[in-house]
Design goal:
Blueprint: E1 5-13, E2 16-24, E3 34-43, H1 45-52, E4 68-76, E5 86-90, E6 105-108, E7 114-115, H2 122-144, E8 153-156, H3 162-173, E9 177-182, H4 188-194, E10 196-201, H5 203-206, E11 217-222, H6 226-234, E12 236-244, H7 258-262, E13 266-269, H8 277-290, H9 293-298, E14 300-304, H10 308-316, E15 323-327
Helix pairs in contact: 1-10, 2-3, 2-8
Protein backbone atom coordinates (compact mmCIF):
# COMPACT_ATOMS: atom_id res chain seq x y z
CA UNK A 1 0.00 0.00 0.00
CA UNK A 2 1.40 3.41 -0.99
CA UNK A 3 1.73 6.23 1.49
CA UNK A 4 -1.23 8.59 1.69
CA UNK A 5 -0.95 12.22 0.68
CA UNK A 6 -3.08 15.39 0.76
CA UNK A 7 -5.29 16.68 -2.00
CA UNK A 8 -8.10 19.21 -2.33
CA UNK A 9 -11.18 17.47 -3.72
CA UNK A 10 -14.31 18.91 -5.31
CA UNK A 11 -17.37 16.69 -4.97
CA UNK A 12 -20.91 17.21 -6.19
CA UNK A 13 -24.17 15.63 -5.13
CA UNK A 14 -27.32 16.73 -6.90
CA UNK A 15 -26.65 20.46 -7.38
CA UNK A 16 -24.53 20.93 -4.26
CA UNK A 17 -20.77 21.27 -4.70
CA UNK A 18 -18.38 20.81 -1.76
CA UNK A 19 -14.62 21.27 -1.46
CA UNK A 20 -12.71 19.20 1.11
CA UNK A 21 -9.15 18.32 2.02
CA UNK A 22 -8.75 14.55 1.64
CA UNK A 23 -6.06 11.90 1.90
CA UNK A 24 -5.55 9.65 -1.11
CA UNK A 25 -3.02 7.11 -2.44
CA UNK A 26 -1.18 6.67 -5.73
CA UNK A 27 -3.83 4.18 -6.87
CA UNK A 28 -6.51 6.88 -6.54
CA UNK A 29 -4.84 9.05 -9.17
CA UNK A 30 -5.97 9.10 -12.78
CA UNK A 31 -4.27 7.48 -15.78
CA UNK A 32 -0.87 8.61 -17.03
CA UNK A 33 2.66 7.36 -17.56
CA UNK A 34 4.53 9.86 -15.37
CA UNK A 35 4.17 10.23 -11.59
CA UNK A 36 5.11 13.67 -10.28
CA UNK A 37 5.72 15.05 -6.81
CA UNK A 38 3.89 18.37 -7.05
CA UNK A 39 5.82 21.14 -5.32
CA UNK A 40 3.80 24.20 -6.35
CA UNK A 41 0.58 25.19 -8.04
CA UNK A 42 -1.11 28.53 -8.42
CA UNK A 43 -4.49 30.25 -8.33
CA UNK A 44 -5.85 31.50 -11.64
CA UNK A 45 -9.23 33.04 -12.45
CA UNK A 46 -10.29 29.71 -13.94
CA UNK A 47 -9.41 27.99 -10.66
CA UNK A 48 -11.72 30.42 -8.90
CA UNK A 49 -14.53 29.45 -11.27
CA UNK A 50 -13.90 25.72 -10.69
CA UNK A 51 -13.67 25.83 -6.89
CA UNK A 52 -16.69 28.07 -6.38
CA UNK A 53 -18.75 26.36 -9.07
CA UNK A 54 -19.47 29.79 -10.58
CA UNK A 55 -18.90 28.31 -14.04
CA UNK A 56 -19.00 24.65 -15.16
CA UNK A 57 -15.22 24.26 -15.51
CA UNK A 58 -15.22 20.82 -13.87
CA UNK A 59 -16.64 18.20 -16.22
CA UNK A 60 -16.56 15.13 -13.96
CA UNK A 61 -16.67 14.55 -10.22
CA UNK A 62 -14.93 14.00 -7.90
CA UNK A 63 -12.17 16.30 -9.16
CA UNK A 64 -8.91 17.67 -7.81
CA UNK A 65 -8.78 21.31 -9.01
CA UNK A 66 -5.73 23.31 -10.04
CA UNK A 67 -5.16 23.96 -13.76
CA UNK A 68 -1.38 23.86 -13.50
CA UNK A 69 1.55 22.67 -11.41
CA UNK A 70 5.32 22.41 -11.20
CA UNK A 71 7.05 19.45 -9.66
CA UNK A 72 9.68 16.72 -9.72
CA UNK A 73 9.35 13.45 -11.59
CA UNK A 74 9.11 10.46 -9.25
CA UNK A 75 8.85 7.80 -11.96
CA UNK A 76 8.28 7.69 -15.72
CA UNK A 77 7.39 5.05 -18.28
CA UNK A 78 8.54 7.45 -21.01
CA UNK A 79 12.30 7.70 -21.63
CA UNK A 80 11.94 11.43 -22.29
CA UNK A 81 11.60 11.93 -18.53
CA UNK A 82 13.73 10.63 -15.68
CA UNK A 83 13.38 10.62 -11.91
CA UNK A 84 14.39 14.04 -10.60
CA UNK A 85 13.46 16.02 -13.72
CA UNK A 86 11.80 19.35 -12.94
CA UNK A 87 8.61 19.74 -14.93
CA UNK A 88 5.66 22.04 -15.51
CA UNK A 89 2.15 21.37 -16.79
CA UNK A 90 -0.37 24.01 -17.86
CA UNK A 91 -3.92 23.11 -18.86
CA UNK A 92 -4.44 19.99 -20.98
CA UNK A 93 -7.67 19.31 -19.09
CA UNK A 94 -6.29 19.60 -15.55
CA UNK A 95 -9.17 20.43 -13.18
CA UNK A 96 -11.65 19.79 -16.01
CA UNK A 97 -11.40 16.11 -16.93
CA UNK A 98 -8.12 15.14 -15.20
CA UNK A 99 -6.99 15.58 -11.59
CA UNK A 100 -5.18 18.89 -11.21
CA UNK A 101 -2.40 20.52 -9.25
CA UNK A 102 -3.93 20.91 -5.78
CA UNK A 103 -2.45 17.61 -4.67
CA UNK A 104 0.92 16.45 -3.34
CA UNK A 105 1.22 14.03 -6.27
CA UNK A 106 -0.10 13.81 -9.80
CA UNK A 107 -0.10 11.17 -12.52
CA UNK A 108 -0.22 12.62 -16.04
CA UNK A 109 0.59 11.87 -19.67
CA UNK A 110 4.19 12.52 -20.67
CA UNK A 111 3.13 14.37 -23.84
CA UNK A 112 1.55 17.03 -21.61
CA UNK A 113 4.69 17.69 -19.55
CA UNK A 114 7.43 20.17 -20.31
CA UNK A 115 10.87 20.24 -18.71
CA UNK A 116 11.45 23.52 -16.94
CA UNK A 117 14.21 25.82 -18.25
CA UNK A 118 17.22 25.59 -15.93
CA UNK A 119 17.01 29.23 -14.86
CA UNK A 120 13.37 29.02 -13.72
CA UNK A 121 12.80 27.39 -10.32
CA UNK A 122 9.70 25.34 -9.52
CA UNK A 123 8.36 28.19 -7.42
CA UNK A 124 9.08 30.79 -10.10
CA UNK A 125 7.34 28.55 -12.64
CA UNK A 126 4.14 28.89 -10.64
CA UNK A 127 4.71 32.57 -9.96
CA UNK A 128 4.43 32.70 -13.75
CA UNK A 129 1.79 29.95 -13.86
CA UNK A 130 -0.87 29.57 -16.51
CA UNK A 131 -1.65 33.29 -16.29
CA UNK A 132 1.96 34.23 -17.09
CA UNK A 133 2.33 31.57 -19.76
CA UNK A 134 -0.92 32.85 -21.32
CA UNK A 135 0.43 36.40 -21.17
CA UNK A 136 3.52 35.22 -23.07
CA UNK A 137 1.33 33.56 -25.71
CA UNK A 138 -0.49 36.90 -26.08
CA UNK A 139 2.79 38.79 -26.47
CA UNK A 140 4.06 36.29 -29.05
CA UNK A 141 0.85 36.74 -31.05
CA UNK A 142 1.28 40.53 -31.00
CA UNK A 143 4.90 40.16 -32.14
CA UNK A 144 4.01 37.61 -34.82
CA UNK A 145 1.42 40.05 -36.16
CA UNK A 146 4.30 42.44 -36.75
CA UNK A 147 3.47 45.05 -34.11
CA UNK A 148 6.67 46.72 -32.94
CA UNK A 149 7.34 49.08 -30.02
CA UNK A 150 7.56 52.07 -32.37
CA UNK A 151 4.06 51.41 -33.74
CA UNK A 152 2.29 52.92 -30.75
CA UNK A 153 0.73 52.21 -27.37
CA UNK A 154 -0.31 48.69 -26.35
CA UNK A 155 -3.32 48.43 -24.04
CA UNK A 156 -3.55 45.74 -21.36
CA UNK A 157 -7.02 45.23 -19.84
CA UNK A 158 -7.64 43.48 -16.53
CA UNK A 159 -4.26 44.93 -15.71
CA UNK A 160 -3.97 44.10 -12.02
CA UNK A 161 -4.88 40.43 -12.55
CA UNK A 162 -2.44 37.64 -13.26
CA UNK A 163 -2.40 37.78 -17.06
CA UNK A 164 -2.41 41.56 -17.05
CA UNK A 165 0.41 41.92 -14.53
CA UNK A 166 2.77 39.59 -16.40
CA UNK A 167 1.81 41.06 -19.78
CA UNK A 168 2.66 44.59 -18.60
CA UNK A 169 6.01 43.41 -17.25
CA UNK A 170 6.91 41.54 -20.45
CA UNK A 171 5.76 44.24 -22.86
CA UNK A 172 7.47 47.09 -21.02
CA UNK A 173 10.77 45.21 -20.81
CA UNK A 174 10.52 44.54 -24.55
CA UNK A 175 10.30 48.29 -25.14
CA UNK A 176 6.56 48.74 -25.70
CA UNK A 177 4.66 51.76 -24.39
CA UNK A 178 2.00 50.12 -22.20
CA UNK A 179 -1.32 51.57 -21.07
CA UNK A 180 -3.13 49.64 -18.33
CA UNK A 181 -6.88 49.43 -17.79
CA UNK A 182 -8.04 48.50 -14.28
CA UNK A 183 -11.06 48.71 -12.04
CA UNK A 184 -8.76 49.47 -9.12
CA UNK A 185 -7.03 52.80 -9.63
CA UNK A 186 -5.53 52.40 -6.15
CA UNK A 187 -3.20 49.89 -7.86
CA UNK A 188 -1.76 52.59 -10.14
CA UNK A 189 1.59 52.64 -8.32
CA UNK A 190 1.84 48.84 -8.58
CA UNK A 191 1.05 48.94 -12.33
CA UNK A 192 3.59 51.74 -12.88
CA UNK A 193 6.27 49.64 -11.15
CA UNK A 194 5.50 46.76 -13.51
CA UNK A 195 6.03 49.10 -16.46
CA UNK A 196 2.69 50.70 -17.36
CA UNK A 197 3.31 54.32 -18.44
CA UNK A 198 -0.36 55.30 -18.14
CA UNK A 199 -3.35 53.83 -16.30
CA UNK A 200 -7.04 54.27 -17.18
CA UNK A 201 -10.24 53.36 -15.35
CA UNK A 202 -11.95 50.28 -16.75
CA UNK A 203 -15.26 52.19 -16.86
CA UNK A 204 -13.89 53.90 -19.98
CA UNK A 205 -14.23 50.54 -21.73
CA UNK A 206 -17.07 48.81 -19.93
CA UNK A 207 -20.02 50.77 -21.34
CA UNK A 208 -21.72 49.88 -24.68
CA UNK A 209 -19.40 50.43 -27.61
CA UNK A 210 -19.73 52.49 -30.77
CA UNK A 211 -18.88 50.56 -33.97
CA UNK A 212 -15.73 52.66 -34.37
CA UNK A 213 -13.98 55.14 -32.14
CA UNK A 214 -10.80 57.20 -32.18
CA UNK A 215 -7.70 55.16 -33.01
CA UNK A 216 -5.88 54.89 -29.67
CA UNK A 217 -3.80 51.70 -29.57
CA UNK A 218 -1.51 49.81 -31.94
CA UNK A 219 -2.57 46.61 -30.23
CA UNK A 220 -3.96 45.18 -27.03
CA UNK A 221 -4.01 42.18 -24.71
CA UNK A 222 -7.48 41.53 -23.31
CA UNK A 223 -8.49 39.09 -20.57
CA UNK A 224 -11.89 40.69 -19.94
CA UNK A 225 -14.02 40.00 -23.03
CA UNK A 226 -17.58 41.25 -23.56
CA UNK A 227 -18.16 45.00 -23.91
CA UNK A 228 -14.57 45.79 -22.93
CA UNK A 229 -13.21 43.79 -25.85
CA UNK A 230 -15.77 45.41 -28.19
CA UNK A 231 -14.60 48.87 -27.09
CA UNK A 232 -10.96 47.92 -27.54
CA UNK A 233 -11.55 46.61 -31.07
CA UNK A 234 -13.36 49.84 -31.98
CA UNK A 235 -10.32 51.92 -30.92
CA UNK A 236 -7.39 49.90 -32.25
CA UNK A 237 -5.41 51.65 -34.99
CA UNK A 238 -5.43 50.59 -38.63
CA UNK A 239 -3.80 47.17 -39.08
CA UNK A 240 -3.55 46.60 -35.33
CA UNK A 241 -4.41 43.46 -33.40
CA UNK A 242 -5.88 42.30 -30.10
CA UNK A 243 -4.82 39.11 -28.31
CA UNK A 244 -7.96 37.87 -26.54
CA UNK A 245 -7.56 35.28 -23.79
CA UNK A 246 -10.26 35.78 -21.14
CA UNK A 247 -13.86 36.47 -20.21
CA UNK A 248 -13.82 38.11 -16.78
CA UNK A 249 -16.61 40.50 -17.84
CA UNK A 250 -18.47 37.93 -19.94
CA UNK A 251 -18.24 35.57 -22.89
CA UNK A 252 -20.34 37.69 -25.25
CA UNK A 253 -18.87 40.08 -27.82
CA UNK A 254 -21.32 42.93 -28.61
CA UNK A 255 -19.31 44.28 -31.53
CA UNK A 256 -19.66 44.82 -35.29
CA UNK A 257 -17.55 43.88 -38.29
CA UNK A 258 -16.54 47.54 -38.75
CA UNK A 259 -13.09 47.37 -37.08
CA UNK A 260 -12.24 44.32 -39.18
CA UNK A 261 -13.37 45.53 -42.60
CA UNK A 262 -12.65 49.27 -42.32
CA UNK A 263 -9.43 49.22 -40.29
CA UNK A 264 -8.08 45.74 -40.96
CA UNK A 265 -7.96 45.01 -37.23
CA UNK A 266 -7.21 41.39 -36.27
CA UNK A 267 -8.64 39.51 -33.31
CA UNK A 268 -6.10 36.91 -32.20
CA UNK A 269 -7.64 34.12 -30.14
CA UNK A 270 -5.30 32.76 -27.45
CA UNK A 271 -5.91 29.26 -26.09
CA UNK A 272 -3.51 28.15 -23.37
CA UNK A 273 -5.27 24.89 -22.47
CA UNK A 274 -4.68 22.84 -25.61
CA UNK A 275 -1.89 24.86 -27.23
CA UNK A 276 0.50 22.51 -29.09
CA UNK A 277 3.72 21.57 -27.33
CA UNK A 278 5.86 23.38 -29.91
CA UNK A 279 4.15 26.66 -29.00
CA UNK A 280 4.41 25.91 -25.27
CA UNK A 281 8.14 25.27 -25.58
CA UNK A 282 8.53 28.54 -27.46
CA UNK A 283 6.59 30.42 -24.78
CA UNK A 284 8.55 28.95 -21.87
CA UNK A 285 11.86 29.56 -23.66
CA UNK A 286 10.93 33.21 -24.11
CA UNK A 287 9.79 33.40 -20.49
CA UNK A 288 13.19 32.08 -19.41
CA UNK A 289 14.82 34.85 -21.46
CA UNK A 290 12.45 37.75 -20.81
CA UNK A 291 10.72 37.35 -17.46
CA UNK A 292 11.87 39.97 -14.95
CA UNK A 293 12.33 38.07 -11.68
CA UNK A 294 12.27 41.24 -9.57
CA UNK A 295 8.95 42.31 -11.09
CA UNK A 296 7.66 38.76 -10.73
CA UNK A 297 8.37 38.84 -6.99
CA UNK A 298 6.60 42.21 -6.78
CA UNK A 299 3.38 40.69 -8.14
CA UNK A 300 3.25 37.41 -6.16
CA UNK A 301 1.85 36.27 -2.84
CA UNK A 302 2.22 32.84 -1.25
CA UNK A 303 -0.55 30.66 0.09
CA UNK A 304 -1.28 27.07 1.11
CA UNK A 305 -3.77 24.42 0.02
CA UNK A 306 -5.81 25.20 3.13
CA UNK A 307 -6.29 28.84 2.06
CA UNK A 308 -7.12 28.27 -1.60
CA UNK A 309 -10.90 28.06 -1.18
CA UNK A 310 -11.10 31.53 0.43
CA UNK A 311 -8.86 33.10 -2.21
CA UNK A 312 -10.87 31.42 -4.98
CA UNK A 313 -13.86 33.52 -4.02
CA UNK A 314 -11.72 36.65 -3.75
CA UNK A 315 -10.18 36.27 -7.21
CA UNK A 316 -13.63 36.25 -8.82
CA UNK A 317 -14.46 39.48 -6.99
CA UNK A 318 -11.34 41.15 -8.34
CA UNK A 319 -9.75 41.30 -4.89
CA UNK A 320 -6.59 39.34 -5.76
CA UNK A 321 -3.71 41.31 -7.24
CA UNK A 322 -1.13 39.70 -9.50
CA UNK A 323 -0.13 36.10 -8.97
CA UNK A 324 -0.82 33.59 -6.16
CA UNK A 325 1.63 30.74 -5.55
CA UNK A 326 0.17 27.68 -3.83
CA UNK A 327 2.93 25.92 -1.90
CA UNK A 328 2.10 22.20 -2.07
CA UNK A 329 5.11 20.17 -0.90
CA UNK A 330 8.35 22.07 -1.26
Amino acid sequence: MSEKFKALMIEKEDDTQTVNMVEIEDNDLMEGNVLVKITHSTLNYKDGLAITGASPVVRSFPMIPGIDFSGIVLSSEDKKFSEGDRVVLNGYGLSESHFGGYSEKGRVKSEHLLKLPENISNKQAMAIGTAGYTAMLCVLAIEDHGIKPDDGVILVSGASGGVGSVAISLLSDLGYNVEASTGRLEETSYLNKLGAKTVIERSELSEPSRPLGKERWAGAIDSVGSTTLANILAQVSYGGAVSACGLAQGMDLPSTVMPFILRGVSLLGIDSVMAPMQLRERAWKRLSENININKLEEMTIDTSLEQVEVLASDILKGKVRGRVIVNISE
